Amino acid sequence: LELREFERERTKLDEVKLLAVDHALNTDIAVLPEGEIVEYIPAYRLVKDQDNDLFENLMALEGQTNIATKGDQYVLHFEPTLEEYSSMDNLEGGVLLGGWVIHDGITTSSIIDPKKQSVGIVGNGNKGLVGTSSPFTFRERATLVYVPLERLEPEINISFTEKVAFDFASLVVKVNNPTYKVHELNLDEAKHSKLGNITNTINTKDGLTEEIYPGESIKLKFSAPPVEQGHTRSFILVSNGRYERIKEGELLTRIPKEFQLDQNYPNPFNPQTTLRYQLAKPGHVAISIYNQLGQEVAMLVDEFKEAGYYETVWDANSTPSGIYYLRMSVADQFGKQLYLDTKKVVVMK
Q1: Cα–Cα distance, 348 to 56 (Å, whole number)
Q2: What average pLDDT does range 281-300 have in this prediction?
């Protein structure tokens, strides 16, 4: 699983968990804002009415949308796809809605405004939205939300309070006696694209968080038991954290606190390996490869660079197997050495 920051934000994460929910083949899983897991059956389909474009746009969450502006209202009709649900008496359930928020006519990743906590409300039948309404929200990217309803009726009213791309609607029945099983998966590894291994930091409740800046990511690897026969599996990501908007003028990237040359990966390798390094200050960077006799066999980097995170690739296709030494030095504009480190690398063909 990979978590990536697409917005103009710094996201802080801690206590990251992945839940595997095994459930019946004919059901699906949703999670309410307070964390309750809902197992449901997609027992109804949208009825085609006079507005053919609206019908076509709401059949699937695939990007073909209807643009809804503040104050727009929709009345949607549904019919059963399964005979046992032809009567809605004593049924619990909700409506699945899909879409995303639109800012100034376009979806953008550099919005400074806080994320919307509600983009509309849903009500039952022809009695309108008073007394039976449920709020819901979309995010800046495609979102599918389960909105619980006070009661199931074939007619649903939706009123939007923000401008959105409205992409999907479906009526579903809540399973009253759910049989799903939840497995909390073991986190084997968490690797940050800039900081390397951060497994211990985000796996424990210690108050220490890790940040993802725009463009950065965290790759997570989990161990999971096999899925039982006759079941399918859905996943729920749980984390403790928050995000901070990055204001105009602030740096979108982090600055390392220290100089560092990471061990190349993979090692041993054939024929290419990746070298990652970081600069706490600007400087002239020289990265070379030497054999065991101290002879330089490759110059990988020889230039002035600003503070930041970098990586380069050594292609040893024409280099024989053996043990080599990776040497990195950084000097300031006056020639004063700021950093020096050496790593052992192995070419194995």
Answers
A1: 57
A2: 96
